Amino acid sequence: MLDSMTHIARALTDMDEPFVRYKTLLNIYGRDPGSREIRILRDEVRESTLAKTLLAEQDASGRIPLDPDDKWRGAHWVLYMLAEVGSAAGDKSLFPLRDQACDWLFAADRLTPVCGAIEGNALYYLHFLGLDQGQSDELATRLIAGLSKPGKSPAAFGQALHALRGLTLHAKVRDDAGARQGADQLAEHLLAHHLYQKADGQPLSADCTALHYPCYEHCDPLLALKVMVEAGRLDDERCRDALDLVRGKQFDDGTFPAERKHYRVGRIGKGNDSLVDWGGSDKRRTNLHVTCDALGVLRAAGERF
Question: Fewer CB within a 10 Å sphere, N or C end of the chain?
């Protein structure tokens, strides 16, 4: 498998798709996130067909004429996915989308409840894309206030994962002790369940053992491990089950599939619509998004390439 891992890692660095080269150099070869090489690649992601497709519904004002939480085409989710694939920070063309999302997040009559996949993902993209104008502090406060009793359902695990991701980045950027403590609390809750298990050791659900891309507001073992890398907790022994689960899904050539998906390609109008085909789901076929993330996690866990 080592030869396959070495081969696929090298092959990924030669691909035309900027997000692939960005994630490979950053997460597999350990390039400095602030290096000129990585900044150039993030600029390339911003100009890529993938990013332009995500933004295809922007109108003349720069906003997307949908509810910001429209799944998965609204401003909130578009910004989150731009951050997920590594688009450049400080892109002024995203300011209208940021304003649209924040107008909704802080609206007095907002109907969507405070939750990890909203506040947590907003925290993540505001910081990652360099769009924060002070809104992140209130978002972090909301998340921390709701940490008293994290749930144990698949949906609750998804919310906890996304909240943890946002708070981890906020704590790093702001050097915020409260956010760091909140992130530690969420990480401990997830680790106590080995990231995807019930108290009896059985999976939370069949979906929680499958690989997806994107996860959006959901959870899966790879996303959980990816968030643990970001939180500096991957060396915890309780990550081992999830690592073994993900390793067991690797093809002989070193790549990974997406086994299930949470989106439908097109403007169907019934929810879960995506303008981007993220590679589909097929247990027998390589998915580049999953492969990049899985190899990055395995590298962080000490795998050799």
Answer: N
